[in-house]
Design a protein that fits this description.
This is AtpZ/AtpI family protein. The chain is 68% helix and 0% strand. By secondary structure, it is mostly helical. It has a domain of 63 residues.
């Protein structure tokens, strides 16, 4: 008689004392197993939000500061120069704000290292 090694997998939820696995046990096991896996939809949602954030920040910077440049240029008499300056200022401030925002999103909280010795 040969004894083959039996591989015992640990289930996500503990087996009830009766040994009978009912529907609630399977729900608990599925919930714990799915909680351990990252949600692909949530990560794609974050990247979609970041992409729209980039587009909206740059468009808002161009429109807002370009409009302010147009108003200043109309008031002071040199419209093309002020519009160009306003657009450049708007783009540069929008990019600066985006880099700051995305930089703070990319940081993860630091965990202290344990000394191996």
């Amino acid at each position: 008689m040969s004894t083959a090694p039996v591989s015992r997998r640990r289930s996500a939820a503990p087996v009830p004392p009766s040994g009978h696995r009912d529907a609630q046990w399977y729900r608990r096991a599925a919930t714990k197993a799915s909680a351990a896996e990252p949600d692909a939809q949530a990560t794609s949602r974050v990247s979609d939000d970041a992409a729209w954030s980039v587009v909206s920040h740059i468009a808002a910077g161009i429109l807002l500061y370009g409009g302010l440049g147009w108003l200043l240029g109309t008031w002071l008499g040199n419209r093309p120069l002020f519009v160009a300056g306003g657009v450049l200022l708007g783009v540069s401030l929008a990019l600066f704000m985006l880099f700051r925002k995305l930089e703070s999103l990319g940081r993860e909280p630091e965990t202290p290292r344990e000394d191996p010795s």
